[in-house]
Amino acid sequence: MTDSRFSCVLFDLDGTLVDTAPDLTGALNHVLSQHNLAPFSVQKVRNTVGFGARITIERSFAHYGKTLSEDALDLAHAQFLAHYSENICKNSTLFPGVDTVLEDFKSNGIRMSVCTNKTENLSLDLLEQIGVSHYFSSICGSDTVPNKKPHPDHIFSAINRAGGITEESILIGDSMADVESARAAGIPVIVMRYGYTAIPSDELGADLVLDAFSQIPQALRDLSH
């Protein structure tokens, strides 16, 4: 890849690099079953995730008109993480074109970092199991930094840990958390239309909205001029 001003590319994980919704749904439904609540569909979970598991759980219980106490939410979160960590790559798959683009970027010396509201250890475990962890200079999870997305500190930490330069960085994501964090950090952001968001992708306010991962290299060239 040439003719791009971006030497550092940050990627969201869930809904951007990997379709994790099937395994996230399994973990969420495990928690809901403990409270005799009906399971969520995979599509409903795709519209719920983005700000981390804890908020996903809160929103899911709110869907049934229920509010968990802090202690109950702590327990539900622990149950979710335990189930998810045991089944983290059971049904999750890379979105089409991801491995090809990552290989292209790596071979052209572009620094890459994962900037996700999934915890760092779970992110690393997933990326290792699915076979793409070696492409990234850093994996910056929600617990890697004091302030996660949409706070700009998450963006700055991911760039610094990758050895990148803010002015030459861009975020590829799928949700409002991605757009808000990129805007706060002062870097461009691309949203993938296939991702996880309750708000239509074209209404998130990204610099570009793309249909396929394979379109990213050309998009970076276009945004460089």
From TrEMBL:
Position of the signal peptide: none
EC class name: hydrolase
Pathway note: Organic acid metabolism; glycolate biosynthesis; glycolate from 2-phosphoglycolate: step 1/1
Cofactor dependence: Mg(2+)
Superkingdom in the source lineage: Bacteria
GO biological process: carbohydrate metabolic process; DNA repair; glycolate biosynthetic process
Any single Pfam family the record assigns to this protein: HAD_2
SUPFAM superfamilies in UniProt: HAD-like (SSF56784)
Catalysed conversion reaction: 2-phosphoglycolate + H2O = glycolate + phosphate
GO cellular component: cytosol
Catalytic residues as annotated in Swiss-Prot or TrEMBL: D12
Protein family per UniProt: Belongs to the HAD-like hydrolase superfamily. CbbY/CbbZ/Gph/YieH family.
Record HAMAP family: GPH_hydrolase_bact
Protein name (Swiss-Prot/TrEMBL): Phosphoglycolate phosphatase
Organism: Cohaesibacter marisflavi
